[in-house]
Design a protein that fits this description.
By secondary structure, the chain is an alpha/beta fold. The protein contains 6 helices and 4 strands, in the order H-H-E-H-E-H-E-H-E-H. The chain has a 4-stranded parallel β-sheet, with helices on both faces. The chain is globular and about 45 Å long.
Length: about 120
Amino acid sequence: MATSVKQMLEAANAAVPKITSDQAAEMIRSGDTLVVDVRDAPEVAASGKIAGAVNVSRGMLEFRADPESPYHDKAFDKTKTVILYCASGGRSALAGKVLKDMGYEKVYNVGGFKDWSGAVEK
């Protein structure tokens, strides 16, 4: 049976807790946290990103997150807390579900860049 984007987002939102910008800022201050911006490079170039965030476009996430991949990014560590964001929260929700499926346990979706860029310094 085919799955719609709406169904995929519902599953992702059920699996990945949504957090506020204040909660994200506190997690970042606590340390051992990876912040991932899953927007495409032109979006990041146009608006900037959260200080310290790693930009991995949604299409490359699985390759960067998998230690067995030749494209693995060492910043991805399954023991860290992972906070994801995108432009409005949809891609970060889907990305969070993928990371959960890959064995990352502490994964959170803060939603859209515009929703929290004022709460955390860029």
